[in-house]
Amino acid sequence: MTEPSDFAEAAAALIGPKYVRTDPAETEPFRKDWRGRYAGEALAVVFPGTPDEVAAMLRLCAERGLPVVPQGGNTGLVGGAIPSKDGRAVLINVSRMDRIRETDIANNSVTVEAGCILANLREHADRHDRLFPMLLGSVGSCEVGGLVSTNAGGTGVLRYGNMRDLVLGLEVVLPDGRIWNGLRGLRKDNSGYDLKQLFIGAEGTLGIVTAAVLKLFPKPLVSATAMVSLGSVEKAVSLLELMQNRIGNRIEAFELVSKSQLEIVERHMPALRSPMPLAEPFYALVEIADNAADWNPEEAFAAALEAALEQELIGDAVVATDIAKAERIWALRHNISESNKQEGFTISNDTSVPISQLPAYVERVTEALKREVRDATICHAGHMGDGNLHVIAILSRATYRTPEECEAGAAIVNAIVHEEAVKLNGSISAEHGIGLMHVGRLKKYKPPLDIELMQRLRAAFDPTGMMNPGKIV
Ligand code: FAD
């Protein structure tokens, strides 16, 4: 068995002693997840600074038969970046590789290293009068390699797509230490299999992403955000259709949040207040934008919302025309995870169904959860424009006191939420991935041939099974 000190010595000779940690107190933040749901042990946490150093670490781990867990900002919500409890794994954290290598304005693309934090990338794009449209609550901590490896979504998917749609090229270190250079900024390339797509959403099971070429977009010059109250999810779906008919692809985000969820945000974030009384069961947060300076988003909103009022789709509506007001509305959405953490034991699911099935899904799931799970607050929040809803059950700490009681409650919630999604032709994981959380469920809900193809693909890249073992399949 490899001792931590043996490994640390060999790793330090390759990347420098400063970048190899074995002391459990120092490695702890990297061994547990953001929500505090998963914690593991590690032989060492290493911080390579270049693709060659990543390759050297992978070769060293392969020689010694050690499992490897790739990690970026460690904001993942399914335990994908957390090692198992046996203490054999080497955690390879790519955060030091955070350079922006090249910005090609004419090609509307940027080449960026895996450890670059999303907020820094967005600021860089902004300084070049461009937009990198990926936006999620973890924007200040999540990194490009993690975003690629989870095929992250967020609030801009409706207009710009998820990470898969934003990646033009990748650089990946394979498990055997070879560096695959797919860093091309092409929008068209039909020369054989599109290999980069395999690594997107692979959750660190096929290799370690070290850099990516990503799409940039013209920066929106005019925008407005509205918050509207809705009597039902059915009305929300009709409102989305109405907006799309009138405003087309200028809709940047269309998010749905339940009243129960907004009340929790207000309770734990005293600085945040809904701009309207919380009187209806659902609220939509809608952002529209364009890069044509002469387009008037307030007028577009006014006309669309008037039509929605006439059709009795909406109750109240507030349109924020300046950035500060819009940010206050979006803060309600982006502080959901943090508020729920304080409210109780949170079971947040990440399912998707066809948008047309959302009303039936919410109704069935809410009824079943209320019936089957005692002392739980049921909330809904999510990217409605993509059919992706987070069904959230928050268990009261007074009733669910032990980890076992919480896990038993979570099992009931998850079974209901997933069964109903699959019945409606949906997915058990729309954007967070499989990680540790859903490993068993994937087998249950995916057809056997899907599982077999995934296993064969994985074995082709990683015949010894050293990459992120125990995750996905
Ligand atoms: P990590 O958590 O470090 O890793 C995630 C997975 O990717 C792991 O399996 C890991 O092994 C692998 N990995 C990481 N880096 C690499 C690499 N360089 N090469 C190969 N594999 C790698 N997600 C959404 O999709 N949409 C949301 O709206 C959203 N909102 C969130 C809000 C909050 C408040 C939080 C805390 C999280 C949210 N997330 C959301 C989840 C999370 O931020 C994303 O999954 C993000 O993409 C993870 O990036 P990371 O750098 O933190 O990756």
TrEMBL record:
The lineage of its organism: Bacteria, Pseudomonadati, Pseudomonadota, Alphaproteobacteria, Hyphomicrobiales. It comes from the Bacteria. One of its GO terms (biological process) is respiratory electron transport chain. Belongs to the FAD-binding oxidoreductase/transferase type 4 family. Its cofactor is FAD. Keywords: FAD, Flavoprotein. This is FAD/FMN-containing dehydrogenase. SUPFAM superfamilies: FAD-binding/transporter-associated domain-like, FAD-linked oxidases, C-terminal domain. It comes from Enterovirga rhinocerotis. Residues 38-219 form the FAD-binding PCMH-type domain.
